[in-house]
């Protein structure tokens, strides 16, 4: 009988079995095993392909032969793929440290484990990975490296305490983009309790600099469905704004509103050229990991 | 609309709860951390109209649910056509008069009537209230099962009963079940004289549905009368009796269970029966039970008629001239007829009749007032000497009418001849009798409440009184003083006074089943024909339903007889055939005044009409359903 894969286990159960580093390893091992079995089998760091030129791309990598022959501006991507540079941008504001159920991971704990898994996966590919933890400001920065000691640095950074009462998602994205000197990947893990447009503008800027932007919207299931807490005043732990509501009365409308908001995020980020996915803290790590490490716009993994 | 439990309407005040919750929803004290408050805020901004509408709809549904439940708890009744029947307050008048005992096709009419009632009871629901009232005034209440059980124990009466009184009582009972729909259902054998009374029952707004049964052709033989003459045989006398029969019939006459005469009569209708007189002599003395009977037929209850007679030597009387010529003449007549014997004054069992001013009289005595006012002092001294606790007062010469002694308008003694002899007698000269047990005339004033010994009053004062060993009249028995000696009932009254009050005959009472009689002072028990003795603890009793001779007992002694026979008209069953039922109902209808008195042509129509009078339904279930629907709608709306 085959053992259950860690990337498909309940995240709460998995987190209870080991600390962050161990969980990340289990998830990555399970994920890689799954990838070998998947139809996507064969993806490789050897992949090389042209991609359309985008403003901000380094002209040194422009394929002049294609430009002359087909009047198409493309850049040679393969050289870059072999040593990708990725920056993980992790929201550690107060809202990320909330869970609707004490038996469930907070959004931050979930995002940390997911980010650790992504980092480990990239480091195993000899890619450079960095980390930015932010709230209203950048609280912790680990520049991208592909060295073996980088994993330890990242683990040390994850063990830092959470942040303050507000978050500046757009600012953190822009600053993280500056830390990745060559075109690379910027992966944002946040509950996105912010306005979409500034964030989309920041993503657009990063895209203009040649970075791939991946946004993972981390949500507690209760934020999607509305908690069954009875008639109460609901308070935002960051802004301290309170709104009275009766879940039984407004749940349906609330859910529709959340779906609208998610659609707006998807549309705004899509227009900015960023990839967007929603991750619920009660779903196994494998699904959001596939979103992050799946086939990118050029058919390659991160 | 009416309510069975209106107090529960106060639950409607609970509508304030959802209203209060709705109004106070913005003041909820509990706070819950929830980072996605921005979605809530956005939701309220974008859907404020929808949310308000939704909140108001939810509020309305909750209020509706509370109101519906409060109304349901109050058990409303509403008339809604075509939905069964609303809770009824049903009083069923079951005619169990003697005539319902007719047996035809091996089943009595009463059994058929009982089956009709049983069918009606089976249509009742738990919300209904019901009573059965029988012709003898008996009322049975309770649940349908208990009524059905009680129904099995009912039987026809020995007499006619009083269907009018039963109907009047049923109307009151039906009204008492308000707010249920009151209905009176009458089921009778349709005898023409079922409501043979002058009184009319006013049902008012209470609907009355009448059903009358017809029977097949009935050929009834009946003994309609039987009486011994005179009341005391010495030791012989006669028995007068009347028999009706559709064809010739044999009769038998029994004394103390022994047949002493027999014969046959030709056919005669109830209205003109054959009247016979049979002379007899009794071998035994004391009270004797007698019966005249004919062969058994479909109606057994009138095949025999009872009588009783006292067999003893005549009472002895000693007459003094002070009693006046009229009293002397009456006594002479009775002596000539051998109803009395002259005896020596002072002899054992001899009653002295004299003026109160006569000297040397001894108890027992019948005394009259002296004509000369000068003699009053002497008369009062005689009363004192005899130990009689009454005195003659000052003479009164104004014309007044005597009244039989009564209590609350009812005669104190319904069995005595005094009622007819005294009532309305003009009195021109009288000495008001003053109760004076201590020997002083000032003990009581005129106009005081009647003392039990009082037989009659005149001008508000006692005028004729009786006690242990004496009868006293407050006027001389002369026409210029009172018309009492001129009245037809005077001589029988004198005989009754001498034989019953002052002698030892006791009394003979004739009554019909169910009748109420009073004036039974000194009676301690009633000895039924089978020898059982039932004690009495007042001077009133209800005559038993079974015909027969019941002896009145004072401890071990028989002091009279109560002869119970059915009303002769109850034997008139001619015209009770099937086709006559409608006319019988029409006759009954004339005795019931009301807004809605309806005859039923059949049993099924009777049952339908009874519940049609309460067309509609209790609204309990519809309201509970409405409350549930409101709650379900609220739950659905709250989820979507």
UniProtKB/TrEMBL annotation, chain A:
Annotated SUPFAM superfamilies: vWA-like (SSF53300)
Alphabetized Gene3D superfamilies for the sequence: von Willebrand factor, type A domain
CDD domains to which the protein is assigned, alphabetical: vWFA (cd00198)
Ranges where the DUF58 domain occurs: 49-260
Record InterPro entries: DUF58 (IPR002881), vWFA_dom_sf (IPR036465)
Name of the protein this chain belongs to: DUF58 domain-containing protein
Organism: Gemmatimonas groenlandica
From TrEMBL, chain B:
Superkingdom of the source species: Bacteria
InterPro entries, per database record: Aerotolerance_reg_N, Double_TM_dom, vWFA_dom_sf
Pfam families named in the record: BatA
Keywords, alphabetical: Membrane, Transmembrane, Transmembrane helix
Residue span(s) of domain Aerotolerance regulator N-terminal: 1-76
Transmembrane segments: 6-24, 57-78, 619-638
Protein name listed in UniProt: Aerotolerance regulator N-terminal domain-containing protein
